[in-house]
Amino acid sequence: MTIDVQKLGQNIKKLRGEKKLSQDDLARQGNLKFSNLAKLEGGFNVNPTISTLIAVAQVLTNGSIDKLLK
Fold it and tell me: CA-to-CA distance for 48 and 37, rounded, in angstroms?
């Protein structure tokens, strides 16, 4: 499966906005490096790890990676 990293980044930004979280908030809650999250949300991380996607999904979608990728 190929991930559209631009769409993924847009979805993360949208979902983060709906939860009224800053990038820093999301990074802290997901136990992620801020710089990695910023690259992911900006569409610059072309090979995100499954653990990163899981961490983001747990904070934004109660664990649904599908919601991040749609």
Answer: 10
